[in-house]
Write a structure and sequence with these properties.
The complex is a heterodimer of chains A (275) and B (317). Chain A is an all-alpha fold and 275 residues long. Helices cover 81% and strands 0% of the residues of chain A. Chain A contains twelve helices and no strands. The radius of gyration of chain A is 23 Å and the shape is globular. The two termini of chain A are 45 Å apart. Chain B is an all-alpha fold and 317 residues long. Chain B has 14 helices and two strands. The radius of gyration of chain B is 25 Å and the shape is globular. Classes of the chains: A mainly alpha (275), B mainly alpha (317). Chains A and B meet through helix 1, helix 3, helix 4, helix 5 and helix 6 of A and helix 1, helix 2, helix 5, helix 6 and helix 8 of B. Chain B: Its main location: membrane. Chain B: It comes from Planomonospora venezuelensis.
Chain lengths: 275, 317
């Protein structure tokens, strides 16, 4: 009796989850591989023909290969921003955790402010323009770094708290101090949390839409999310191409998810619970 | 997944004893040679980027919000921008919508996240698969989710309305009707974000010591007792995080609303963040910045007291 009830509950939970979470994704995939006539119905039917390769080629070559350029831009943006975030946040989190004092208190306050305060958009544009960085990839990279730092610093600080200070002292006795101590002794120990930061920040920056929209407008150096947004109005009659675009853009996060699901979840819950 | 309790280790684990004074003296001597052990210089790169790109614009916003501004020159107009924001109906509606959106999404994420968290920590055979399924939308881009759901929610021909028609309900025009547009977007936000709330709850529930459940079993309590008197109160830290996180996210939310309704129909689903963008596009930089300052005030005025209030409850479990 109890087993039966459990089986029933399981079946019900599975059915609901499938309907709510699987259907939208299957719909994306199915529409992406249909021909344009069938895709226009926007229903949940099985494709009658499978012009997969044709759809991919059409999406990629659309508007003079804008999608490929967007992919390059997004990759550069993500890699550069995440690298800078890791280095800056690891150093800051280390001093923040190890050295208390008035500056530490101020830094703690600023980290929390960074998590809560919404960035002031137009003044940031004004400042980037004054620096000659508005509408440039380096400018957007700096923006992503500045907005992503707080969260990364929190993760690093929490991890460094678990590294015993005796280690620092032993290194100091061996004549290792300051920068050498950090880069030769501490930083290599941060590998697990570094991977977590890389994964969560990569997904966040690759998927970011708002900051590229504001700080890197224009088709020349659009990122994939902005291209997708622009495709929305362009392909309002060719749904198969629009959804193929969505599928192509979802591949990188999907890969991250397949290989590093646990790491990502651990990072997000740790950051959340401590944030 | 660990530190569910407030982090008290921040001062660093300084285990005492075992001849430390001698080593300390050594270390101090070595430090004199090599400079301070934890140089403030390590803050420098982070501080530089953060100050220039984040702090300075945030501070400048308070001045530019009081001006009529073209990026090249600005004319001081006092509180005019704020008066416009509060007086004009298509601007002030953004306040109400922002708060409604944040409250609805946080409340649903707490309730559904807790439910899914309990379900997915029980002895379900497919729970690994279900956990992944629920979490995956968190990693999909908001624009993609927005486009997909604006198709699924099309009136009459959309999949959702077709499914409702099967059971005899004629669904509303979700995104085209002024009374449902904002709530429809909020529901999609919950669909995308509930996975994060769920994994936070799962981490919280798994960190509850099993002794408590055994105690309930000894006293002859059932599933409801386990939930009401153990899971619910002891997963409070998770609830706290979910509420704070989804409030911050909900109040600042822009991309989903923008891809699904662009604030429409009319301006009925505009939130402060989308008004900021619209005024920026229209070239009203001062007004846009005033929106930013107001958003800052709204977020601080809600999140800081909320954080304090919820944090106080955390002390007495």
């Amino acid at each position: 009796m109890k087993n039966l009830r459990r089986a029933g509950a399981e079946a019900a939970a599975l059915a609901v989850a499938a309907a709510v979470f699987l259907v939208p994704f299957s719909f994306m995939l199915l529409t992406a591989v249909k021909d344009d006539k069938q895709a226009a119905d926007l229903d949940f039917s099985w494709p009658t023909s499978w012009p997969v390769v044709k759809n991919v080629i059409e999406v990629v070559s659309a508007r003079d290969y804008v999608l490929l350029r967007a992919y390059v831009n997004s990759t550069v943006l993500t890699v550069a921003s995440v690298a800078l975030i890791v280095v800056c946040a690891a150093m800051a989190g280390y001093v923040l955790q190890r050295r208390a004092g008035r500056i530490g208190t101020l830094a703690n306050f600023l980290v929390l402010s960074g998590l809560i305060i919404p960035p002031a958009i137009v003044p940031t544009i004004w400042l980037l323009q004054a620096l000659g960085l508005f509408k440039t990839l380096p400018g957007l990279i700096l923006v992503e770094v500045a907005f992503g730092l707080s969260y990364a610093v929190l993760l690093f600080r929490a991890f460094i708290a678990a590294i015993p200070r005796e280690l620092d002292e032993a290194a100091m006795i061996d004549g290792c101090g300051g920068l050498t101590l950090f880069f030769r002794v501490i930083f290599p120990l941060l590998k697990p949390v570094t991977i977590t930061v890389i994964l969560t920040q990569s997904v966040a920056i690759f998927n970011d839409f708002v900051n590229p929209l504001y700080f890197l407008p224009g088709d020349d150096n659009a990122t994939v999310q902005v291209t997708l947004y622009n495709f929305q109005s362009q392909y309002s009659t060719q749904w198969n191409l629009l959804f193929m675009d969505i599928v192509l853009i979802t591949i990188p996060p999907l890969l991250a998810f397949v290989f590093f699901n646990r790491k990502i979840v651990a990072g997000m819950t740790a950051g959340a619970v401590k944030g | 997944m660990t530190g569910h309790r407030p982090d008290t280790r921040d001062a660093g684990p300084r285990s005492a004893g075992s001849g430390l004074p001698a080593r300390r003296a050594h270390a101090t001597r070595a430090r004199r040679k090599t400079g301070p052990a934890y140089p403030y210089a390590l803050y420098l790169p982070a501080a530089l980027v953060y100050t220039v790109i984040f702090l300075v614009p945030t501070a400048m916003a308070f001045y530019f919000a009081l001006t009529r501004w073209t990026l090249f020159d600005s004319e001081f107009v006092g509180l005019d921008n704020f008066r416009d924001f509060l007086a004009e109906q298509n601007l002030s509606i953004g306040f109400r919508n922002t708060v409604v959106y944040a409250v609805v999404t946080s409340a649903l994420k707490v309730v559904i996240g807790l439910g899914l968290g309990v379900l997915l920590t029980s002895k379900l055979r497919l729970r690994g698969f279900l956990r992944s399924l629920v979490f995956f939308p968190v990693l999909v881009s908001t624009v993609a989710v927005g486009i997909t759901f604006s198709v699924l929610l099309k009136p009459d021909t959309g999949l959702v309305d077709k499914a409702l028609a099967l059971v005899g309900i004629s669904g509303p025009d979700w995104l085209g009707d002024a009374s449902t547009a904002l709530l429809s977007v909020a529901l999609v936000d919950v669909w995308k974000g509930v996975g994060l709330a769920t994994v936070i709850y799962i981490a919280g529930i798994l960190s509850i010591p099993t002794d408590y459940y055994q105690a309930v079993a000894v006293d002859g309590g059932g599933a409801w007792h386990r939930f009401r008197h153990v899971t619910l109160p002891l997963s409070w830290p998770a609830t706290y995080s979910v509420i704070i996180l989804s409030f911050i996210g909900g109040l600042r939310s822009f991309d989903l609303i923008w891809t699904m309704t662009r604030g429409g129909p009319g301006f009925t689903s505009d939130v402060i963040a989308s008004i900021i963008y619209k005024q920026y596009q229209a070239g009203f930089y001062g007004l846009s910045t005033a929106g930013n300052v107001l958003l800052f005030v709204v977020v601080t005025a809600i999140v800081v007291p909320l954080n304090w209030f919820l944090g106080r409850r955390q002390v007495s479990p």
